[in-house]
């Protein structure tokens, strides 16, 4: 899911740049998620009478090694908020800003239904992402059973994070250059009435 959403983002980026008369004034980072796969261990010929040759006795989930010191590993954005986890002067903040933009693209391109969160890794090689999905999306697992989207992507799929995305997200230079929709918080009738009653006192 994460690789698919990231590919969707880069497809959008590449098409936008190709169709623009001028290239962006900034470099677009190129990142990827680690490769992963299952390793199955099979029984070999054994002297044990009940050990069936060729049967699977262990399964391992293998993930590409991220090389480098612990200081190089950064968590850029967590799944509780759509803004960088880092401060402006922190190492990796520029990358975090790019990841904020990728969330914006994914949110819009999926019809406001999903985006990647928990961006973490060593700048160009990322691992352990979380997909956030709208709480009203359901997954049909059989003819009669519906599973809530929170179950699809585990406990890390925080409903509030996607429901509040438009309120939390702060557009940056990437969003602006690539023409992303600027989210404006609507003012309800009560707030408008309060604002109309305000009196400004000048000294």
From TrEMBL:
**Transferase recorded as keyword:** yes
Q: Which residues form the Alpha-type protein kinase domain?
A: 1-183
The superkingdom of the source organism is Eukaryota
Q: Name one GO molecular function term.
A: ATP binding
Q: Which UniProt keywords apply?
A: Kinase, Serine/threonine-protein kinase, Transferase
Task: Check the record and name the SUPFAM superfamilies matching this protein.
Answer: Protein kinase-like (PK-like)
Pfam families according to UniProt:
Alpha_kinase
Name the record gives this protein: Alpha-type protein kinase domain-containing protein
Q: Species name for this entry?
A: Suillus plorans
């Amino acid at each position: 899911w994460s690789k698919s959403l990231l590919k969707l983002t880069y497809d959008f980026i590449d098409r936008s740049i190709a169709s623009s008369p001028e290239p962006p004034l900034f470099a677009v980072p190129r990142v990827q998620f680690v490769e992963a796969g299952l390793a199955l261990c099979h029984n070999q010929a054994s002297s044990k009478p009940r050990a069936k040759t060729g049967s699977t006795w262990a399964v391992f989930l293998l993930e590409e090694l991220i090389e480098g010191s612990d200081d190089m590993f950064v968590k850029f954005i967590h799944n509780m908020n759509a803004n960088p986890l880092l401060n402006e002067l922190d190492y990796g903040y520029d990358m975090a800003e790019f990841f904020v933009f990728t969330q914006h693209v994914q949110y819009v391109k999926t019809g406001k239904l999903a985006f990647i969160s928990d961006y973490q890794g060593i700048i160009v090689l990322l691992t352990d992402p979380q997909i956030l999905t709208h709480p009203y999306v359901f997954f049909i697992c059989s003819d009669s059973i519906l599973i809530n989207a929170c179950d699809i992507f585990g406990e890390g799929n925080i409903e509030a994070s996607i429901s509040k995305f438009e309120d939390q997200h702060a557009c940056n230079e990437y969003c602006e250059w690539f023409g992303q929709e600027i989210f404006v918080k609507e003012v309800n009738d009560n707030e408008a009435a309060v604002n109309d009653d305000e009196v400004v006192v000048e000294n």
